[in-house]
């Protein structure tokens, strides 16, 4: 006799389930009934095979989101903003139907800081987004903070740098011989392995402090060109040619140039001390040294 109490696993709602989301599923499906929102019906079979319950809805179409309301009290928001505009309309549509007193982890980006001139800093540094892509992320963070305060919910924001994995290395770029910045103009860049990011997001569900920002970054202290050189050596490829910024900007796309215009080194003390994370790949070399 259950006295009217619900039996079974609690529900976890996942919005967006690309590479990192798929890596999260094995870490949470034993504890939760995982409901994954996808806008692509053709992905439903893949998601079911991975142990999730697919739900077709579209963050760009608010009318499709009504059934998400009060569906779960534990939420992971992995969906990126739309590709244009100064605000994240998708997160705004989501916030309009989120339940009260929920527990939400949002995957943001380290791009919200803009160029920091190679400075090393923690999560207390003010944001200064330098392009619409980063401003959309700042908007999403602000919208979710307002929702969390209003609804009494717990929100953790993970600011994420460049994600790498065995199948997420810049091999195509190296094979094409795309140039990198000269040493004098090079920028510091930050990294996290996709498996570590998945584990960090799960840990944040359990241990994050309310309305807390965490740098989901590893211990790598590298400039971008050195990263490309390390990957090239690992795979026996020629290192990229190095050019001064004035010449490079004529050969790469505006988006690529924007990544090469921001230099920062993010500290991860909160990740270790508050979330208790022990990285499987504490630096890029920890992966590269395992590869043939």
Automatic annotation (TrEMBL):
SUPFAM superfamilies in the cross-refs: NAD(P)-binding Rossmann-fold domains
Domain Saccharopine dehydrogenase NADP binding: 13-85
Domain RmlD-like substrate binding: 101-271
Record's protein name: NAD-dependent dehydratase
Lineage per the UniProt record: Bacteria, Pseudomonadati, Pseudomonadota, Betaproteobacteria, Burkholderiales
